[in-house]
Amino acid sequence: MDHFSIIQALCRAAMADASPALRKQIERLRDALAKDGDAKQSAALTSILTTADRTKELSPSRIERSKAQNPGEVLTRNTPVPVDRETAAALADIIFPADIQPTAPLFNATVSQAIETIIEEWANFEALSEIDIRPSKTCLIYGAPGTGKTRLALWIAQQLGLPVVLVKLDGLVSSFLGTTARNIGNLFTFANRHRCILLLDEFDAIAKVRDDPQEVGEIKRVVNALLQNLDVRRDIGFTIGITNHPKLLDTAVWRRFEVQLEIPKPDFEMRKAIAAHFMPPVKAPDIHLRLIAWFTEGSTGAEIESLVRTYKKATTVREEDKRGLLDTLRQFATLNAARVQSERRALLFDDSSNLFRAMRDDPILGFSMADIGEIAGKDKSTVSRQLGRSAKSGEGEVLNG
């Protein structure tokens, strides 16, 4: 069939919110292709139908209960989003559950448990309503850039089976300063009319301290409009705000959010888990994962993912061009100097004996001489001798001093 790739894309988009009649037509097309001998194209449509079924089965009880708590019209891919009156630019993006990765983000046990609590509240809305309690309807997620805040918000929506109305507020402020308050009103009106999660990204762009002398009167009016709209929406739907700069938020904004969830930078074990998560299909030794976790102290998940990409490229190029782990770390530290803790970076480019000693003596890393030797491409006796010579040299300097 000519242009089947376009037909395939249309079918995939349609199945995200398909009626029984629409599904029937896709099944007819699949069967017709199979009858005409186009087995490959027929199988592609079967795959689309199967994927749609699996997506629908992910959490049916949660979807139905969340609908009960979120009255309104159903968002579809054909629903027009509000636009700026002067420029006709869309004020939001719509992201559907089928387009969101179902894999849970990686956080420490405390954060993961808190997130599960939010989801369980919405999944058990009926039980809570019997004791006159409602799920939390506003959630502020804050933390350093790259810690997974936006991905977490989207995953929560995916778990609840709700589409996301994603708004990047920094774009509204910088591009449409004179009409920002009106645009915000239109966005909230749109979100309140539909069954969805309203996700306000770059929240600090608008929700700034109102008594900041550097801000013009327009921003102050925008903050007031935002507060009023948040107050109205809290009785209608679920709203999530995201910010990298919590200190910039007005205290009145903080009070509008029932849940205030901080996403910390990952600790050693989480950094190792993140490295392992992004490593496939490459199989990295455990000591490599541990060293990556140690090297990325103070880093975010996004920065660890970037280092893992560098590692994977270094281990899959031509044999004569392959780098050892230490050389790969030095390359990454050179190209990403601002993202690497200065102490770790200094050790990488210092005398190797100082790096070996730090690796040996760090209780979290827990490396043996054999581990260090494997990473450095030396046998453990060579590493031991190098450390011994370094120690004697240090003692001599102390005596001479």
TrEMBL record:
**Could you tell me which residue ranges the AAA+ ATPase domain spans?**
135-267
Q: Report TM segments.
A: none
Q: Which domain of life is it from?
A: Bacteria
Region described as Disordered: spans on this chain: 56-79
Q: Which SMART domains did the record assign?
A: AAA (SM00382)
Q: Is Nucleotide-binding among this UniProt entry's keywords?
A: yes
A molecular function annotated in GO for this UniProt entry is: ATP hydrolysis activity
Q: What keywords appear on the UniProt entry?
A: ATP-binding, Nucleotide-binding
This chain belongs to the protein called SpoVK/Ycf46/Vps4 family AAA+-type ATPase
Organism annotation: Sphingosinicella soli
